# Entry
Amino acid sequence: MDANVGELVDAVEELGIGDDTIIVFTSDNGPDPTFPSQGTSGPWRGYYFTHMEGSLRTPFIIRWPGHVPAGRVSNEVVHSVDTFTTFAKIAGAAVPPDRAIDGVDQSEFLLGKTEHSAREGFTVFVADRMEAVKWKNWKLAFYKEERDWWSPPTKLGVPLIFDLINDPKEEYGATLTPNAWIGGPAMKIVADFEESLKRYPPIRPGTPDPYTPPQ
# Structure
């Protein structure tokens, strides 16, 4: 993979368009757990198709000489859906105003004009289930984390709270702790998302394309 990425970067430079090309290296989820294609999630636990950090945390390396500060490292929250709104802004394109747009503009953050991301968290879906919500370095989990792909999901009676700085492997989830206050900001993310579904109902399977949102 390193060699292939290197060939692409070299080709961009040989064409003389390196300074005008944004290169992003990222992934939509964490590693596959099945042999022989299994990967590692490093210090985190979990893998693809889970709500654990091993699934949610992926590399996001961006290169744009003269614009994106080189060597900068951050642990701020950025979601893959933010790439649409961010690159639309950088390219001078308008984001459609007649539908729900999940992404937020991260151009100020990626260009080094601010130290903080434009987002504090997001809802975590596995298949069609909202299994958790992240807020800053915290996670509120609504489902038990199964250890294989085939067990039916088990919804928890009371959500578990994880402090992802002190418990990066999500081994010590608790229900009644001094950290129960994070339920407030975390559930606001959930409420805002559910409100958006009322304003912009999900597109039903089989809907003709192109799709025109209802007024």
Observations:
- The first helix runs from residue 2 to 14.
- The two ends are 46 Å apart (CA to CA).
